[in-house]
Structures
1.
Amino acid sequence: MDILVDSNVILDIVTEDHIWYGWSSSKLSEFSSNCRFFINPLIYSEVSISFERIEELDEVISGTFFLREHIPWEAAFLAGKCFLKYRKRGGARRSPLPDFFIGAHASVRNMTLLTRDTGRYGEYFPKLKIISP
């Protein structure tokens, strides 16, 4: 199984979040023997805020543990359509677009999404397989 790992899961581990560290690390451990973990440039960018240098980030988000994949064009199209639906339903303009790219990426590539933020993913990507608390 291929799993796209949301930034919140990685940040839980990197920051040793006192609430979510245990859940996030146990899920990565649970699936590490029979799954491949992926990130995309948006996830990379969101995780980067916890680091001063790119070398430090690259050490933590190793290419051997987290495979890097670009967002497919089809996913970018789907993300835009889902974001438009969200906006038409009165959704805030703040910054949910990255979540739509992440959800669309996992959907188009038929990946499972490992996240603890299921709200928009479940609503706008109903066929998306999600691992969450």
2.
Amino acid sequence: MPVDDYSGPFDPAFELARLSRQALADLGRELLLNGHLQDRVGLPRVLAKQGDEGMTQVSIEEWMGASPIYSKRMQRALGFEGREVGTIFKNLQLDIGAPHQFMEFRFDLDGPAYGEFWLECCGPLLDVEPFGEERVRLMCHDVEDPTFDATAAATHPCAKIRPIHRPPRVPSTRVPHCRWKVFIDDRSSAYSQHPNLERVQASKIAQLEIRLPEKDAEPGGWRDYAGPFDPECQLEDFSHRALVRINLELALQSHLLARSFLLCVGQRSDPETVRELAGQQWTGIAGLTAERLQRALAVGGDGAEAIAKVFQMHPCFHPRDYIDLRVELEDDGVRVAFGECLAFEEGDDCSWLAHLSDEPHPALDAIARAVNPRALCTPTHVRGDERLAFRVQIDSDAPPHPEARDVKLAKVSKGAHIAFQRRRPLRD
């Protein structure tokens, strides 16, 4: 019987499919936010090293190298492949670029070739407005213009997304924050995707086939999104099996975006900078999401069992078809091990796990310390077919470790503190 949270005993075999539909819907909102906020760590680090121009280009190219791939994946996963504006809108509803409630999207679909969407409230805009009009234009003009078209072109090469109005807001209290029209312009030339897209598409994570439960573990909900576009669609509308797939695809979206980000960084810098930024980005989002997951899944306490649960459920270690993570309790703490798996076979340094070795890593510490600030994660000996192994221990006599700078950076965004609301009961 599916459970509504992970408040029960730790189970080394626990998996996403054990959660109920409502728990999976709640978790999905967290994973959308997780994928979105990882840039809140990575891009400021690029800004510090490469200035405004470097940050702008990485902002653009990382999304252009990932979004078209995961858009098509979600279409195939939920059976809504097509070449219409409604297909683009469905993608936006299930995209880490548009996390629910942090970005309040609204839609009006006029037909297969035209529609409009607007943001009643845009969390990223509220994050950026205090830094002045120049930063607002960078995000809402320089970055959004090419990245919106790249996402739309994944559905139709002649699809366009153009502003009706957008920030800077005039007056400063204007609502909705922006409004856009989406249309198919068959008279225009086909959109030319960024060359990095082909490189990201060749990765093992981009081509991953995700294994799913054979059947729904509880009744109700849409088995796919093949039906008409629903402007009020919520995660609660989907079936149990569909929600398992959505959550795994959202975790995969995060990995694809990180891969594209690190590819862009590597094209502008040296391998040491790639390693440095990979560690910083992973640490910041790993710690923030671990803290939020503990609340979202009702993981009580601050002991070894709570740490083990958070490691087990953290999206940076999903899908399991890609990352072979093994978590178990030991007398003196938690053992976290990695088996040989596709994540270690990518053959490049464009992923977080590519920089994981038999040395301490701040991202693992950040996850453990989100539960208990006295935790320490250190490498340990491997067993059997393990590739890497770590032991997490809590020293109750030691002073709390200070929160990592990159976790603090992730928390600068208002999205880090959002409390999600359930706005619709489960669909029958």
3.
Amino acid sequence: MIVGIIGGGQLARMLALAGQPLGLEFIFIDPGAGISAASTGQHWQGPYDDPELLRRLAATADVATYEFENVPPATIEYLARHMAVFPSVRALSCARDRLQEKSLFDRLGIPTVPHRPVNSRAELAEAVEALGLPAVLKTRRLGYDGKGQIVLRAPADIGTAWERLGGADLILEAFVEFQREVSIIAARNRAGEVRFYPLSENTHERGVLAFSRARPGDPAAAEACRYMGLLLDEFAYVGVLALELFDVGGRLLANEMAPRVHNSGHWTIEGSETSQFENHLRAVLGWPLGDTAPVGYTAMFNCVGYLPDPKAVMAIGGAHWHDYRKAVRPGRKVGHITARASDKDSLEPAISALKAVLPGHVFD
């Protein structure tokens, strides 16, 4: 069977690596040259909305999916008229727009941070008056990894923020003092079968995920799974869905969702019976989902802007190396490293050893 993927970055690459043992073949539509996924399937180079490439994909592949939210919804709408494509364009469109997303959380009764739409300098002033400072001004669309957002800490920041972001539709969100950031990842297949992964506890640096740790048995997981279940039902979702949340004094507030495999779930490759990548493929193909039970205790480090010495990494017991085959540049995710151990206490020495060979990050 052939799976078409819109996008050819590291997520597409890891999907293909998970699918190859299942006998699957892959086609990637991506405008870039030398894409991360190139060695794992066919790369059809061109814009994500190239009508000829989409026509060929619909005629060639058995199912289509996408690796990130910046895919134009019109691309998925076109494919859906000619072939099976998952997740749905409705889920994609909602996740692309922070205001739509927050409005959906409100409607479903999923707690989230206070927020206001901002479409003018006057509305920004009104939103600041309503929410107070500090607050976070964000573009409604196309922001990721900390891009397209500015923290307002004092009234003097308002004018500068408007000058930088005022050309786009915006949303102002209250700044919350959280104890930790967590995410829940689930898969739902065409038959409605659902599997949840253990909660991930995440650390970001400058808006980019630096470190994730699987937390099997975390007491917040039940609440996170309930919110996730509401979203899966709302969209009659097919595929892997991630929901990022703030833990504020034991209460979870939804931050954003991602209709795709997610960076905070990379640990599942070594740390679960079935990775998020394999389960996404199973889901969109209509196959039964695999077991998501954890295999020991696992943590994941992102390599952002550099790759360490692989020999130093692989000399550490329980460490697993993932090179995305991308050119190294500042702020770019170019690989990740997973540490796994049979018990919680044995994981700590591996984490400490990896911190020593991964300088420049804040993990604690």
4.
Amino acid sequence: MNSCTTVALEQFLEALADKIGPQGYKVWFANLAKVELTDSTVAVTVPNNFVGNWIQKHYANLLLGTANEVVGHTCKLQVRVSDEGVKSSAQQSLQKGKGSSTAGKQEVPASKGKPLRRGQALRFSLDEFVVGPSNQLAFATAQSIVGQNCALFNPLFIHGSCGLGKTHLLQGICNAIRSSRPQARCIYISGEEFTNQFILGLRNNRVSGFRQRFRQVDVLAIDDIHFLANKRATQEEFLHTFNSIETQGKQVILASDTHPKLLGKVIDSLISRFLAGMVVKIESPDYETRLAILLKQDKRLELGADKAVLEYVAQNVRGNVRELEGAMLKLKAYGSLSRQVVSLPMAAHVLADHLRMTAGPAGMDTLQQVVADYFGLSPTDLQSGRRNNVLTLARSLAMYLARKHTRMSYPEIGRAFGRRSHASVISAYKKLERLLEEKKVLEWTTAGGRSERQNAAQVVSKLSEQISKATRKDCRN
């Protein structure tokens, strides 16, 4: 079995990248896998079983089809796991002719007062993370970081609504790295605490100590990075910290409640840095993932609930992981106090009030999509800072409906619409209330240039019906 020429391999990789797209190719092949092509085999070496299974499931046909185009006949696929780590094909090609970029590189001395002391662990681990369609990519990128000594993509930027597992992944990465590399220096910190420590350093004339602590690390994981919005000095400091860590080939991991493009009052140089890395979103869990989460919670709490009970909770509690955990804790507490076995009738009785508070509301993604579709826009339009007749009207309606169909507070709704202030949301809500009370007619111009005039109450009624319908559809998934 003869290896194909370097030219054939390059043609194969280029064709593969074109078919997969730059983001998918960067994650799974440029950074994680080593691909070799022979006259009869496509051999893919990966760092762990998870990556291998993912590539086999999602890219097997594409790999074999592309190989057939290059070599002119059918090949077989071979995926194997390497215990020694993987240098991707892209990394190898970059190193040809100039030697290893890591050769002779000296380790940075460990700073005093490590954020995570040897043997110290954060709360969450990757082993406990329940993987489903809503978070597969985020989890896979988290695992890929753990298996490498140098940064794969900087930063890894994870975003999504609260309670979906962002903190779990950040802490899990830090714990896993410290477990596999005990000498690694990892910092996990919130955006608020990072800001507070920087301000304290300024006040006490100890900025140099702050910089030594945060720049001499292997991994810097900052939760709720959106907290830096509107804090120019802290943003500038973090940008220099980021650049220093990246120059050393070390890893930065960030979590936010929104996409980098929607971060309000953040300097452009930081936004461009975020977008240059790997940006992944965590969605709300589907039914199967919710059930898997509940099964794990049932085991951890030693609840011993019947599957029918877990199915009932998974079907009716659809918000986020925290709500699922809250429902299970309530069942555990009631069962312990009453000394009753958790049955379906008992669960329905105990969770009645809990379900009234958690069941049924639309998710923000669903709501924004429905309103955007109605006006011929995109959700990104609603979240942007642009203003015109149709955008302003659609945005105001979406904010009003968010108060009606979700349990989100005014500040939370504001953040979901491009980090607008809670005062803006209140203003939009009151404006719509006034239009409805006065039975006003709404006017706007469609994308096709056509003028539309509809009664405000009719528009709200139509959108509410579509939101409810879309939510019911989501809940069945």
